[in-house]
């Protein structure tokens, strides 16, 4: 895996995905509600999809983590940075299983991954793209201090339909100001 460290927050442990995560990945990422709000999770999501993801993560330039509850060791989602090292930037992406929605898990994990990206990896910029129809994700990126940079009209194709995405970004200097 390309994740050199494990990260921790008050409630979460962010660690590399493992083969033992596959049943939970299929169950959680397999929910239509999760796939509908993400750019890259197919539906239905199968064991073969989970295995392919683990294989892809082992060779791509990604810093991807399983989101695990520290207290119970339950897998509840995934988060990471899709690195563009030639530009010192990365796209942050995340998903959380439906049973864990509304508990601040994505925000807590994203805050730590942003810290890791800016402070440990020394990135210049972290950006996110969100569906305008996903107010929870829009709320998360705004809580992280990201600035809306515009809308890419009919930019992605999901389930046979072209969809708009809103673009958000944060620069390292802005992160320092948010962190103070």
Task: Write a structural description.
The chain has one domain (7-179): Gcn5-related N-acetyltransferase (GNAT) (Aminopeptidase). It has helices at 22-29, 32-36, 47-59, 105-120, 135-143, 172-179, and strands at residues 7-8, 12-15, 62-69, 75-84, 89-96, 125-130, 147-158, 161-171. With 180 residues, the chain is an alpha+beta fold. The protein is globular and about 40 Å long. The protein has six helices and eight strands, in the order E-E-H-H-H-E-E-E-H-E-H-E-E-H. The longest helix is centred in the middle third of the chain and has 16 residues, at 105-120. The model has no long low-confidence stretch (mean pLDDT 93). A hairpin with a 4-residue loop joins strand 4 (75-84) and strand 5. 33% of the residues lie in helices and 34% in strands. An eight-stranded mixed sheet has the order 1-2-3-4-5-6-8-7, with helices on both faces.
Shape descriptor: globular
CATH topology: Aminopeptidase
Helical amount among residues, as a percent range?
25-40%
Low-confidence stretches: none
The biggest sheet, with number of strands, parallel, antiparallel or mixed sense and barrel status, is: 8 strands, mixed
At CATH level 2, the architecture is 3-Layer(aba) Sandwich
| Head-to-tail CA distance between termini | 32 Å
Enumerate the strands of the largest sheet in spatial order, edge to edge or round the barrel: 1-2-3-4-5-6-8-7
What is the CATH C level class, in words? Answer: Alpha Beta
């Amino acid at each position: 895996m390309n994740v050199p460290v494990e990260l921790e927050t008050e409630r979460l442990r962010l660690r590399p995905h493992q083969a033992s995560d596959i049943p939970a990945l299929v169950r959680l990422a397999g929910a239509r509600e999760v796939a509908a709000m993400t750019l890259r999770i197919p539906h239905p999501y199968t064991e073969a999809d989970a295995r392919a993801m683990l294989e892809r993560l082992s060779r791509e330039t990604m810093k991807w983590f399983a989101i695990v509850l520290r207290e119970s060791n339950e897998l509840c989602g995934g988060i990471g940075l899709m690195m563009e090292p030639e530009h010192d930037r990365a796209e942050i992406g995340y998903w959380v299983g439906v049973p864990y929605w509304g508990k601040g898990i994505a925000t807590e994990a994203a805050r730590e991954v942003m810290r890791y990206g800016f402070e440990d990896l020394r990135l210049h910029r972290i950006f996110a793209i969100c569906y305008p129809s996903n107010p929870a994700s829009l709320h998360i990126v705004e809580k992280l201090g990201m600035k809306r940079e515009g809308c890419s009209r009919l930019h992605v194709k999901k389930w046979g339909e072209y969809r708009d995405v809103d673009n958000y970004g944060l620069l390292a200097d802005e992160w320092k100001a948010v962190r103070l």
